[in-house]
Write a structure and sequence with these properties.
Layout: E1 4-6, H1 11-18, H2 27-30, H3 39-46, H4 57-77, E2 90-92, E3 100-101, E4 105-106, E5 113-119, H5 129-142, E6 146-153, E7 157-164, H6 167-186, H7 196-202, H8 216-250, E8 255-257, E9 263-266, H9 278-284, H10 286-291
Parallel strand pairs: 5-6
Antiparallel strand pairs: 1-2, 2-3, 4-5, 6-7, 8-9
Length: 310
C-alpha cells in the first residue's frame, strides 16, 4: 500500500487539508480513550458547531520542544531523520481519503515513524493507550509499520518506546474511524455523552419536576458517597482543631520555623482591599444598576438529600 502524499504550501493550507478527514491525534477521542476529548466534543468541532481548540501553552511547548526532543533522540541512537519530514506533510490512505496523518518525523535510511511528545504526564513503564492508538493509526495510514514514541517528561527526563505494529488493533481503529466519519461527521448522528462535560452541553438545564427511579447501582453509589462524606467531615474537624491549636501557639507571628530556620507554615494578614457595595448601589441607583445587569444560566446543584434518621 502506498499512501497519497499532500505537501501544503502553508500551515493554514495544512489545517484546511487536515479538516477533510480524521487525524491521528483525534482517534483516541473517537475510541473514548482520550483524557481531554470525547466523541461528542470532537463531533461538535468536526461539524463546525463549535470553533477549533485554541492553541494553549502546553500545545506551544510541544511545538517548540519537538525539534529538541528529536535532537536528543538522534544523540542517543546515532540515527538521523529526514529533514523534510519536519514539514507539515499529510499522508492520506489511498482507499480511505478521510484517514489523514502527519507523522512528526520519518527516520532516515529506513521506514520508521517518530512520534514526539513533550509532557508533564508520568509515562511509566508502558505507553499510554491514547498515545498507542495515535501511533497505530499513523502506521495503518502510512503503511510504515515501525515506530517509536519519544518524549521529554517534565522538561528534564528523556524517554522512548519502541512501538510494534498491532494489525488487529490498527484495523479496529480504522473501523471505528470509518464509522465515526460516515455516521457522525457526514451522517450527522450525534454521539452519546460519555462524561459530565458532554452532558453539560447536551443537557444544560434540568427538566422541572422530572424525576427518575434509582437503580441498585445508583443506590450503592449514594451510600458510598454518604460514608465517604462522613469520613471527610470527621477529618475536617480534626484538621480544624489542629489548625486552631497552631494558631493559638503562633499568636501574632507570621511564620513558624523548624530548628534550622526553615519555614514550616505561614499565617499572614492579607492586604486591605476595596469592594463594590452592589446592594447599596442598586438601592440608590436602580435604573443604572438594571442597565448593567445580565442574566446568566443557573448552575445545576448536585445535592444528596438527608434521609429520615440521619
Amino acid at each position: 500500500m502506498k499512501p497519497i502524499i499532500i505537501k501544503p504550501k502553508s500551515h493554514d493550507e495544512w489545517l484546511k487539508a487536515r479538516e477533510a478527514g480524521i487525524g491521528a491525534s483525534e482517534v483516541a477521542a473517537i475510541l473514548g480513550l482520550s483524557p481531554w476529548d470525547s466523541p461528542f466534543s470532537l463531533w461538535l468541532r468536526k461539524t463546525h458547531q463549535v470553533p477549533p481548540i485554541e492553541e494553549n501553552d502546553a500545545m506551544r511547548r510541544g511545538h517548540y520542544l519537538e525539534d529538541a526532543v528529536v535532537q536528543w533522540w538522534m544523540h542517543e541512537t546515532g540515527e538521523q531523520v529526514i529533514k523534510a519530514s519536519a514539514a507539515d506533510i499529510i499522508y492520506v490512505h489511498p482507499d480511505h481519503p478521510y484517514m489523514r496523518v502527519t507523522p512528526d518525523r520519518i527516520v532516515k535510511g529506513r521506514k520508521k515513524i517518530l512520534e514526539v511528545k513533550s509532557t508533564s504526564i508520568s509515562m511509566g513503564e508502558t505507553i499510554p493507550v491514547y498515545y498507542m492508538a495515535q501511533v497505530q493509526y499513523q502506521m495503518y495510514v502510512t503503511g510504515i509499520h515501525q515506530a517509536e514514541l519519544i518524549y521529554i517528561q517534565g522538561g528534564l527526563t528523556f524517554g522512548r518506546f519502541i512501538v510494534e505494529y498491532d494489525e488487529e488493533f490498527a484495523e479496529f481503529i480504522a473501523e471505528k474511524v470509518t464509522e465515526f466519519w460516515y455516521n457522525n461527521v457526514l451522517g450527522g448522528q450525534e454521539p452519546d455523552a460519555i462524561n459530565v462535560a458532554d452532558l453539560a452541553v447536551k443537557v444544560p438545564k434540568s427538566t422541572p419536576e422530572k424525576s427518575i427511579q434509582a437503580d441498585d447501582t445508583a443506590l450503592a453509589q449514594i451510600a458510598e458517597i454518604r460514608a465517604k462524606k462522613a469520613q471527610y467531615e470527621a477529618l475536617g474537624k480534626e484538621i480544624e482543631a489542629l489548625t486552631d491549636s497552631l494558631k493559638m501557639f503562633m499568636t501574632d507571628s507570621e511564620a513558624l520555623l523548624d530548628e534550622s530556620g526553615n519555614i514550616l507554615l505561614t499565617w499572614k494578614s492579607g492586604k486591605d482591599k476595596t469592594s463594590f457595595d452592589s446592594k447599596t448601589f442598586a438601592a440608590e441607583n436602580p435604573d443604572l444598576y438594571a442597565k448593567y445587569c445580565k442574566t446568566v444560566p443557573g448552575a445545576r446543584s448536585f445535592l444528596i438529600k438527608k434521609q429520615k434518621g440521619e
